[in-house]
Every structure is written in structure tokens, then in C-alpha cells.
């Protein structure tokens, strides 16, 4: 089973900041990493697929990078509407496993 | 827009049973693998089970195998999770999720979840 270690668990940002969230896989998973955003009481939204591909309709301030074991979700010029819980998912091998999640607060 | 709406959650005693449902709409349900994913309080998400389009091929996380059964009714656009022999550690919000088509590469749509609490 692939363990995914996500950090930080919580972060507080100011509008306009650049934010990085990390997910590290315990083994090589190529680019089989997705990123999601979830706001309280709402369904999660798929924002990045295959480590780097931005889904349609997702603002370009979101980007993903990485390959193999180290992956990063970056939010440039963060906005108040980006306050949410973010999590990553590896789908390279079963069982699919998730990072522990990051709660992003906007000051 | 794809819609997934879970129902059936609630409070159940240890050893009890519960059946969750997920009503799917605005897409061709029968064309997709579907899944259940859960999140225990204060914990990360955990994939629980997958079911193929035909309802025959199924996969489970080890901790629920033999206790939970995933099923689907393509005529009713409905996904279910029958949970038996429930334990305190099964307490979680349970999400219905659609698997990315073709590439089988994670989930592309999620429901809002339904809370299951296992407690005496």
C-alpha cells in the first residue's frame, strides 16, 4: 500500500500570497496524483489530474507539479474564496490512498 | 452538472447494519465505475469500495471486506453500500464518488456525504 504524506495540515494565508501544499508518496507513482478542493458542506471538486493538468473551469492560479514521489499543489495570488480543505489522491495502485488533507484559512 | 446525493446515514449500535444509497443524475450512470469513500472524524479520507459498470466486478479495502457490500441498480441510477457488523471505527462521513472514465484514474465527481455514527 502506498502511503501519502500531506503537509502542512493547516495553513493561514493572506490574500495575494503564494501557497504550496505538498504530498509525498511512499513509492514511485509516476504522475498518478490528483488534487481536490472541498468546502464545508459541499461536494469535493476535482482541480488537478495526473499531477499537473488543471481541470476545466478551475482558475489558472491553481497549478500542480511533481512526478514520482513528490507532488505540490500551488495556489498563486490566493483569494478569500480559496479557503477550503485540500487533499491529494494517488491512483497508481490499489488501494487508492489519500493525503491527510490541508485546511487553508484566509486571514 | 453531475449530481450525486447520498442518504441512509444515521446512528447505529455496534454490530448493527445500515444501508447507504447514492442517487446519481445528469450523466449516464451505467457507463461509469462508482465508489464509496469515507472520512472518520479528524482523519483523512479512505477509499472503501469500487464497483464496475456491470455490477459484477467489485473491490474493497481490507478493513471492510466481508462486512460491507457495494451494489448498483443501473435502471434506477443508484449506488448502494450495505454495511453489516458495524464497528466504532466505521464511524465516518461516507461519500459516493464517480470514477474517472476510461483512464480509471481516481474520482471526478463526489457527493456531499452522509454521516454514519456507530455507538451504543
What's this entry about, in short?
The complex is a heterodimer of chains A (107) and B (120). Chain A is an all-beta fold and 107 residues long. In chain A, 0% of the residues lie in helices and 50% in strands.
Question: Mind sketching the topology for me?
Answer:
The complex is a heterodimer of chains A (107) and B (120).
Chain A: E1 4-7, E2 10-13, E3 19-25, E4 33-38, E5 45-49, E6 53-54, E7 62-67, E8 70-75, E9 84-90, E10 97-98, E11 102-106
Parallel strand pairs in A: 2-11
Antiparallel strand pairs in A: 1-3, 3-8, 4-5, 4-9, 5-6, 7-8, 9-10, 9-11
Chain B: E1 3-7, E2 10-12, E3 18-25, E4 34-39, E5 45-51, E6 58-60, E7 68-73, E8 78-83, E9 92-99, E10 107-110, E11 114-118
What does this structure look like?
The complex is a heterodimer of chains A (107) and B (120). Chain A contains no helices and eleven strands. Chain A has 107 residues and is mainly β. In chain A, the strands form two sheets. In chain A, strands 2, 4, 5, 6, 9, 10 and 11 form a seven-stranded mixed β-sheet that branches. In chain A, strands 1-3-8-7 form a four-stranded antiparallel β-sheet, with no helix packed on it. In chain A, a hairpin with a 3-residue loop joins strand 5 and strand 6. The N and C termini of chain A lie far apart (37 Å). The mean pLDDT of chain A is 97. By secondary structure, chain B is mostly beta strands. In chain B, 0% of the residues lie in helices and 51% in strands. Chain B has no helices and eleven strands. In chain B, the strands form two sheets. In chain B, strands 2, 4, 5, 6, 9, 10 and 11 form a seven-stranded mixed β-sheet that branches. Chain B has a four-stranded antiparallel β-sheet with strand order 1-3-8-7, with no helix packed on it. Chain B is globular and about 40 Å long. Chains A and B meet through strand 4, strand 5 and strand 10 of A and strand 5 and strand 10 of B.
Amino acid at each position: 500500500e502506498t502511503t501519502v504524506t500531506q503537509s502542512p495540515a493547516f495553513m493561514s494565508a493572506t490574500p495575494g500570497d503564494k501557497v504550496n501544499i505538498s504530498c509525498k508518496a511512499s513509492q514511485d507513482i509516476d504522475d498518478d496524483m490528483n488534487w481536490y478542493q472541498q468546502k464545508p458542506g459541499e461536494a469535493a471538486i476535482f482541480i488537478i489530474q495526473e499531477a499537473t493538468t488543471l481541470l476545466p473551469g478551475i482558475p489558472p492560479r491553481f497549478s500542480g507539479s511533481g512526478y514520482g514521489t513528490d507532488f505540490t499543489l500551488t495556489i498563486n495570488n490566493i483569494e478569500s474564496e480559496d479557503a477550503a480543505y485540500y487533499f491529494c489522491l494517488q491512483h497508481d495502485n490499489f488501494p487508492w490512498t489519500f493525503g491527510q488533507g490541508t485546511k487553508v484559512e484566509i486571514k | 452538472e453531475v449530481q450525486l446525493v447520498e442518504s441512509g446515514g444515521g446512528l447505529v449500535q455496534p454490530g448493527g447494519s445500515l444501508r447507504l444509497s447514492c442517487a446519481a443524475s445528469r450523466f449516464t450512470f451505467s457507463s461509469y465505475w462508482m465508489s464509496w469513500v469515507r472520512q472518520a472524524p479528524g482523519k483523512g479520507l479512505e477509499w472503501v469500495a469500487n464497483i464496475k459498470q456491470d455490477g459484477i466486478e467489485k473491490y474493497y479495502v481490507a478493513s471492510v471486506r466481508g462486512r460491507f457490500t457495494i451494489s448498483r441498480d443501473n435502471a434506477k441510477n443508484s449506488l448502494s453500500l450495505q454495511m453489516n457488523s458495524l464497528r466504532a471505527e466505521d464511524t465516518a462521513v461516507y461519500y459516493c464518488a464517480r470514477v474517472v472514465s476510461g483512464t480509471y484514474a481516481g474520482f471526478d465527481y463526489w457527493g456531499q456525504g452522509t454521516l454514519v455514527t456507530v455507538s451504543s
